[in-house]
């Protein structure tokens, strides 16, 4: 009975979705109306280019997400006229990537029931989806299936998954993947041929001679082979030559490009030197009825953002939002943040993204309001920023620490420090308690403006409010002191906070202050920090001490340094070796011998020490070298 009811719920859901879909068809929308994520192929319309889509989002995805995978669900899905295209299946898989089992079930279903043939890029996506502890059986099954079907793991996918395994401490699987990938590269004859082709193309300018040599190779071209050559040329940095090869196989070998190979060339051409060709391919795809798949969009968009080609990233987002396979809210947020973090922030690009997002029937999220607010405050347009804050309130989102921190940052940037400090009072008056990050932004703003004493005053106010400080904030304050060459003041602040509040500074913070102290010839204070590092279980930091003591330190300084190196009675033999070696390197043989007399008996009699001094006496100061870093065992 329970199974029967479950089946009825699924079928009811499917009928409702279809009803909504065909209701949309009956309304006969104009060609200019925006369409969204429903991509059911109408049996009435019959042609892919003439599909109209419902304004309701992602029905097919919703059906799969809201129901357990079962025979009943498969039967219900089979009754829907779903277009089994590369783009559509990639879209579904990306939407299901947080549910590996359901993604796998869906792919198996379209392969078995719809006769769909996965591409190498789709297999790569499935491997990334399966790259977790709970899906390893499916992961290795998919790899076996790829090999049986003549596909390979490309270098990008291999590196990505190998990194995931290492981060998850899955060392056994990481090692197995490494060995499998190595064997596959050697065994894959097609892969070798693809390398031969890419090497031929690489060594000379594209022209008649290259085309002649390629023609003599009598290549058997497939989707997989084309993708392999394109990826080889991408990895060695020849996007324009990859484009020439892409056109050549179509023209001279009569190879018919499809959505898989078109998406493949887009991933290669998303570079500044080939951006004209990129958009030319996009236009050509559109004329042929092909779509950019969601996985390709994400990779290309992230690359545009990485290399600061934000205008192209925005144009690509607009294109995708006008198509069937729309990017998620998360992708919209990532793009908006990239724009906001650019210098200076480009409000025109920002609002183009927001407007396109809203035109698809979406409402602004808190993150979107914050990104707009951040851009405006960063540009000093505070009145407009306040209007965005009011609009955010009207939409049901209260300003929080993120919102106020952005306002503080913008005010500090323009040296309006008093106004920035008053924001703290405004926050508390609104019931929003400033957190450590907000205080850090305020204090860092004062430090950047050269007002370190006022920054210290802000820090005192924070401490009075019982806000727990952290190593990041301490680092900000100390860098403020160092920017004004107040080295000893930085040392005093660090030691006071460690002593009174049991703070644990970053290792990098300790190292920086030690170097600055030694630069001011304050060895005693630097040694004090070295001892504190040991108490905090940081590895020793001997290099600047060795340099300082060997050039201008005394024997007593060397003795104190050796004592500070170890929590035990005496440091290791290698520690003594390095000190002696540094003295010899500066030609200070007498100081080295004086230090030797002050060493404990077991050090003076150690063969390594004896050999060191023997070689120095007979070889005019040329001493045995010891590997750097051996003091870490001290």
From TrEMBL:
GO annotation (BP), single = RNA splicing
Q: Which Pfam families match?
A: PPR, PPR_1, PPR_2
PPR repeat intervals:
258-292, 365-399, 400-434, 435-469, 506-540
Q: Which residues cross the membrane?
A: none
Give the source's domain of life in one word.
Answer: Eukaryota
Annotated keywords: Repeat
InterPro entries recorded for this chain? BIR6-like, PPR_rpt, TPR-like_helical_dom_sf
Keyword Repeat applies = yes
Name of protein = Pentatricopeptide repeat-containing protein
Please spell out the taxonomic lineage of the organism that makes this protein: Eukaryota, Viridiplantae, Streptophyta, Embryophyta, Tracheophyta
């Amino acid at each position: 009975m329970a199974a029967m009811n479950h089946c009825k719920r699924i079928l009811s859901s499917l009928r409702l979705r279809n009803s909504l879909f065909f209701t949309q068809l009956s309304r006969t929308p104009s060609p200019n109306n925006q369409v969204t994520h429903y991509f059911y192929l109408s049996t009435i319309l019959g042609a892919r280019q003439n599909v109209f889509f419902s304004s309701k989002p992602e029905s097919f995805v919703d059906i799969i997400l809201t129901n357990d995978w079962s025979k009943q669900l498969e039967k219900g899905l089979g009754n829907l006229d779903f277009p089994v295209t590369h783009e559509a299946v990639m879209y579904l898989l990306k939407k299901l990537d947080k549910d590996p089992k359901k993604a796998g079930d869906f792919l198996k279903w379209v392969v078995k029931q719809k006769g769909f043939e996965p591409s190498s890029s789709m297999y790569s996506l499935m491997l990334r989806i399966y790259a977790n502890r709970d899906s390893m059986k499916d992961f290795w099954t998919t790899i076996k299936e790829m090999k049986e079907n003549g596909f390979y793991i490309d270098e990008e996918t291999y590196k990505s998954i190998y990194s995931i395994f290492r981060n998850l401490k899955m060392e056994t699987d990481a090692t197995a993947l490494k060995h499998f990938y190595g064997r596959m590269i050697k065994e894959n004859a097609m892969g070798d041929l693809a390398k031969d082709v890419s090497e031929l193309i690489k060594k000379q300018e594209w022209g008649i001679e290259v085309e002649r040599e390629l023609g003599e190779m009598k290549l058997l071209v497939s989707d997989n082979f084309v993708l392999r050559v394109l990826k080889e040329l991408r990895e060695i940095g020849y996007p324009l030559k990859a484009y020439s090869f892409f056109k050549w196989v179509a023209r001279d070998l009569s190879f018919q490009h499809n959505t898989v190979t078109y998406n493949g060339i887009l991933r290669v051409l998303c570079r500044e030197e080939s951006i004209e060709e990129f958009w030319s391919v996009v236009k050509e795809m559109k004329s042929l009825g092909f779509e950019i798949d969601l996985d390709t969009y994400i990779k290309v968009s992230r690359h545009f953002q990485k290399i600061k080609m934000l205008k192209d990233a925005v144009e690509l987002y607009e294109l995708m939002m006008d198509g069937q396979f729309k990017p998620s809210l998360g992708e919209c947020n990532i793009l908006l943040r990239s724009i906001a973090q650019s210098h200076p922030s480009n409000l025109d690009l920002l609002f183009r993204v927001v407007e396109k997002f809203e035109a698809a029937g979406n409402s602004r999220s808190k993150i979107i309001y914050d990104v707009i607010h951040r851009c405006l405050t960063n540009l000093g347009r505070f009145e407009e920023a306040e209007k965005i804050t009011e609009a955010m309130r009207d939409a049901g989102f209260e300003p929080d620490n993120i919102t106020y921190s952005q306002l503080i940052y913008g005010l500090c940037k323009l040296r309006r420090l008093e106004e920035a400090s008053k924001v703290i009072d405004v926050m508390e008056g609104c019931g929003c308690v400033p957190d450590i990050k907000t205080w850090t932004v305020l204090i860092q703003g004062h430090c950047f403006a050269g007002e370190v004493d006022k920054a210290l005053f802000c820090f005192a106010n924070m401490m009075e409010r019982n806000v727990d400080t952290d190593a990041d904030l301490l680092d900000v304050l100390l860098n403020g002191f160092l920017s004004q060459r107040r080295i000893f003041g930085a040392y005093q602040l660090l030691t006071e906070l460690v002593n009174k509040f049991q703070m644990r500074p970053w290792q990098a913070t300790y190292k920086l202050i030690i170097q600055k102290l030694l630069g001011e010839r304050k060895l005693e204070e630097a040694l004090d920090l070295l001892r504190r590092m040991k108490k905090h279980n940081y590895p020793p930091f001997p290099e600047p001490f060795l340099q300082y003591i060997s050039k201008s330190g005394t024997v007593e300084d060397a003795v104190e340094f050796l004592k500070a190196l170890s929590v035990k009675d005496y440091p290791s033999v290698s520690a003594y070796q390095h000190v002696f070696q540094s003295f010899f390197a500066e030609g200070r043989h007498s100081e080295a011998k004086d230090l030797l007399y002050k060493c404990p008996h077991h050090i003076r009699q150690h063969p390594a020490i004896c050999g060191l001094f023997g070689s120095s006496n007979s070889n005019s100061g040329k001493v045995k070298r010891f590997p750097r870093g051996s003091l870490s065992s001290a």
